[in-house]
Design goal:
binds dicarbonimidic diamide, two-stranded antiparallel ribbon, alpha/beta, 227 residues
Amino acid sequence: MLTIPAQPYPYPLPDRGIALLIIDMQRDFLESGGFGAALGNDVRPLRSIIPQVQALQQGFRKLGLPIFQTIEGHPPDLSNCPPSKRQRGNSALKIGDLGPMGRILVLNEPGNAIISELTPLPGEPVIAKPGKGAFYATDLADQLQTQAITHLIVTGVTTEVCVQTTLREANDRGYSCLLVEDATASYFPEFKQATLDMVISQGGIIGWRSTTDQVLQSLTAEYIETS
Ligand code: C5J
């Protein structure tokens, strides 16, 4: 069995059942007129990972391996947005308000779209999630089960919020998760680093971490040979 060089120890690759999970690479978090920027955040750290996430997306496509993307968003009536979430942060622009790219975190608004660099191909699933974790109030678990996925290569933004929450949810559900450290980002580099450290602490309490190059090299060796 091949492995991906990783911390805290090599990540075992299954014969099948591995998928790429790309969390919330949407315009509202990554573009200068978006929600993240309106809250005073510098979007450059988030944009810096686009080439790595693209490389993983293209690599998985080439190998015929499944890719799942998520977006954080709510229907126009905000029916699945708890009032507490809307109030959180006490900012001038709240979820549902009209921002520079349409209504903030509302599904199908321009700002809610995945950035053009990572547009999914027809048939590649995009899961709309109302919370920070991708399993909460979504059918992600059912979709993964249908495809017998057991291993998740996790990327996206932000590392300490939606990415970490999803990793913890996935780990509790029995998935083996590897966080790609150069394909995840935070507005706060110190929070990203703390998350990378937490994930692999105590012998890999939540999962593994590795790099885009290591993941792609190992997957190519394993799945080109066996496909
Ligand atoms: C946040 C996310 N930070 N995708 N969402 O609200 O991490």
